[in-house]
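Researcher: Structure prediction, please.
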Amino acid sequence: MNNRYPIYTEDAECQDCYKCVRRCLVKAIRVRDGRAAVIPENCIGCGRCVEVCPAHAKRVRSDLGRIKMLLRSDKPVYVSLAPSHVSEYHRLQPGQLIAALRRLGFAGVGETAVGAQLVSAAVAAELNRMERGVVISSACPAAADFIRKYLPQFAGAITPVLSPVMAHARYLRDRFGDDIAVVFVGPCIAKKTEADRHEKLLTLALTYPELNQLLQDHDIDPCRLTPGPEDHFVPEKAAEGALYPIEGGMIETIRPLCRNQRVRYASISGIGSLALALEGLSPDEVEVPVFIETLACGGGCVHGPQSEHRSPGLLERLRILESAVTLPEIPPRSTPGDFSGEFPPDPVPAETVDDAKLREALHRIGKFRPEDELNCGGCGYDSCREFARALIAGNGENAMCVSYMRKLAQKKANALLRCMPAGVAVVDKNLAIVECNRMFAELLGPDCLDVFDACPGMAGADLRRMASFAPLFLDVIESGSELKRDYLKVGDHLFNLTIFPIEAGAVAGAVIFDVTHTELHRSEIAARAREVIDKNLAAVQEIACRLGEHMADTELLLRSIADDYPDEEISTPNPGNSAAPRSPASPPATE
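Model: Predicted structure follows.
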């Protein structure tokens, strides 16, 4: 058995929008680290979160692997096909769909509506014995779970009869043997939960998208198939039970069988409508016998969470009405098998929260006074106090509160603006100040500072009346390009100005530094540097001059020494002559 709950979250796809929390009527969603996950023990399997998730992060468990293994086994597998197939596959003849299912390997295809007819007969017999009180249909597993979990005082009023699909599974096993496998195919996610609870009776529950994927995997196009004589519903075709998928359809099948004229009938579709009808009511308060047909999906199963919804709802309803076989008189229906069911209360425990914990949770999201509790519903809960209870239960996070996060962001932005050593301003296309810090007002002068102290942020003030450089903002807003001025002279000051677009064509921001004193300091340093350079140059010139004089004196001295010596030829001694060389001063020898 696949232990994963039929509805789960793909964490990588969840975009922390909290839409599933807002649309879940039972708040069976836990948010942690910005990711919304289903709480299985609180969930009723209606699939509303799957339908509304904009990121498609809420997924339905796929049982394709299990059905493929089942079809490869030796066990005969029969389909219990939901009566809403008439609308879902309205372009197909029933025989074509049956032929496609048989080609997949199913031993036969029966209509869940046959089980619905058996349920209607059993409920009519129950109503015939009633004198007062409420009887609630067990046909919709999501609605039945809602009553068991959230209106447990009415759990005893649920008809002690299996749902139509479970009754049909019992019927098929009675006809074809208890060793077969039964697989439901329809638009309902809650049927997966029902199959998980009663696996020995209903082996699997597939949705229409899963069937479509299975056909695609086997390259089967039902539109191209020609039904054979064996392609028909087994063991017989349904009649009035085909009305079950639409609101009021079950009542239409019960009314002709009920002899108790005092019974009143009510069809309630949608969990919200069911809660509105029964909350605060005690079963003992109802003086007459009342039968309530309950459906979790508004309008009935034709609007189930795993149906295509490609047609207007009226057309889907008309297809069901036209497909149902109208009998002049509904015959008694029974089966030897036992399809009685039990629906004991399974209340979701309500945690008791004392006032101190509730106040502490409210303080965590900035709700210190009653007027702070906006009850805007942005977090997904109807009131701030409900959200605070979710925080205490660990099902929510502070970041889910929109107003708290906005105030927190504003506080951080204000703190950053106050601490920045630069002037910061945000200006709109009309050159009106949206927001600025105190430093910006100081840079513009004492008059602007007085305005800032009177109205912090100077929202709405006309920048043109305060700053000569206001037109530069307009240039940036219109062009969408950043503008930078390293040295912008404004009066006696020099500004380093950067203006950047925030919203093209609408808003621009600016960061301004006063660099006047910095530039004066740089001028002094440059003057001192030039003075040092001039002194060094003078010293070098003086040294060069003295070196030049010394070089000239040296050259004169060396020349005078050289002139004192006459140019004479110096003889080279003969190596072969052993006589000592003659001194140059000696006179030449006479002959």
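Model: Confidence is low (pLDDT under 50) at residues 569-591.
Researcher: Thanks, that helps.
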